[in-house]
Amino acid sequence: MSQQDNSVHFVAIDMGSNSFHLVIAREQDGSIQVLHKEKRQVQLAKGLNADGILDEAAITRGINCLTEFSQRFSQLEQTRVRIVATHTLRVAKNAQQFLHAARKVIGYPIEIVSGHEEARLIYSGIVNSQTLTERNLVIDIGGGSTEVVIGKRTKATNLASLKCGCVSYNQRYFADGVLDKAAFKAAQAAADKQFSLLPNAYFKGSWPLVLGSSGSAKAVNEALNGDSDTPQPITMSGLKKLRQYLIELGHVDHIDLPNLDPKRIPLLAAGLAILISFFKRLAIEEMQVAQGALREGVLYELSDIDPAKGLKQRTVMSLAQLYHADPQQADSVQLSAEQLFVQVAKDWQLTDCRWLLQAAAQLHEIGIHINSRSHHKHGGYIIDNSDLPGFSQQQQTALAMLVANHRKRVNLNQLQQLDSDEQLRLTRLLVIFRLAVVLNLGRIQTATKAITLKVVDNKLILALPSGFDDPNQLLHKDLSSEQKKLEKIGIILQF
């Protein structure tokens, strides 16, 4: 890390039972900007014996990792550091021996968090990384424990920590590397016993959104989806197929999944067995991979950023400020876009898309920071290749496409790559957006409130108010030019 950056830096270290994670970040206009991420497979849980004693080899692996992590941020002048340890150090009888040695190399206290606190921080990390629904269920399969959380949007309402993990179950049921029905049956039965201990709240009603956080969920998802450009949610059918595939291979050494981290392969069967039991016991239909985890929760709480403020809005404003977009022009285009939008949203079935139009308006000029001539293309590229907390991949792609095509010729190839419904939706949003930009060319806002826009059959009719003053006919020229461009995407504009 550079010694010249005098910003306040936030350093989060998550000492999991399988892996240690380091994240270094700073606050950038109300949003977290991650500067460095690192993961090491330390496998603390592997060194925990039946008597609850952590062996010297595991302690050495942990201390060596923390020593190297410390070197990543030790030269930064202003840092806020929080280090949390989870299940293995919760149960290790000689945890103090580890903590004493660690303090000598890291220089900061290590918090051994309870299972419930771990679960709360996991949910906090997810809240700050993506948009959640009214009712959410989260599972995080760690090396030594599994946390299960119920949440209502930004608030975790039920927290549970169970004694099942991919490292401990791998040692108990798959230690010899054999993958057979008997091993899976035993592991699933043990996990099911743990899930059966969950309170009644976990067995009531349906789940609009189920998320799997951290390594095991990601590994199973990668095993099921491979390198697919359109990954599918995890389902029970997919989990059973993966289990059958592993059983047919017969041994962990025969697993051939090139897209999977080789270090995750030995733990795949154990994580899969726990996940199958979770699906069965809680009647889960499908699950997606969460965008955040424990370390993000630690990070955001260190920075004291309020998750109650809309995550998408926070992300958009941070990006706009980072690239010095003109806020007055952005607001003018947004106002025009919204005034046009409300007139056609119902006819064009766009009522739930206002937020996307707002975001595009705020970000449409960020590419000027790179080059004014093709700033629309640069803006689209920036959005497409940035980390945008709160946006799904599909939403990010849609936003990038709107910004990249808000002026000049529309890239037909981009539109044609979408399915027919999405293509129609984005084409209609793009028309509204482009018209709003035209009405604000030259930084002079046209009185959009007096302009009417309506859909008649397959035509879009824009009417300027009676007596509209356009002495140089500039707006008419701009609209005539736009009319020709819109014809190429199948939109007939009359004005």
How would you explain this protein's 3D organization?
Helix content is 45%, strand content 17%. By secondary structure, it is α/β, with parallel strands linked by helices. Strands 8-7-6-9-11-10 form a 6-stranded mixed beta sheet, with helices on both faces. Strands 3-2-1-4-5 form a 5-stranded mixed beta sheet, with helices on both faces. Strands 12-13-14 form a 3-stranded mixed beta sheet. It contains 18 helices and 14 strands. The longest helix has 19 residues, at 420-438. The mean pLDDT is 90. It is elongated and about 85 Å long. Helix 6 (181-195) crosses helix 9, helix 7 (214-225) crosses helix 9 and helix 8 (236-249) packs antiparallel against helix 9 (268-281). The protein has helices at residues 56-73, 87-91, 95-106, 115-127, 166-173, 181-195, 214-225, 236-249, 268-281, 294-303, 311-322, 327-344, 354-363, 375-384, 393-404, 412-416, 420-438, 474-487, and strands at 9-15, 19-28, 31-41, 79-85, 110-112, 136-141, 146-152, 155-162, 209-213, 234-235, 286-289, 452-456, 459-463, 492-494. Strand 1 and strand 2 form a beta hairpin. The protein folds into 3 domains: 9-113 and 297-303, Nucleotidyltransferase, domain 5 (2-Layer Sandwich); 131-290, Exopolyphosphatase. Domain 2 (Nucleotidyltransferase, domain 5, 2-Layer Sandwich); 311-494, Orthogonal Bundle (Hypothetical protein af1432), CATH 1.10.3210.
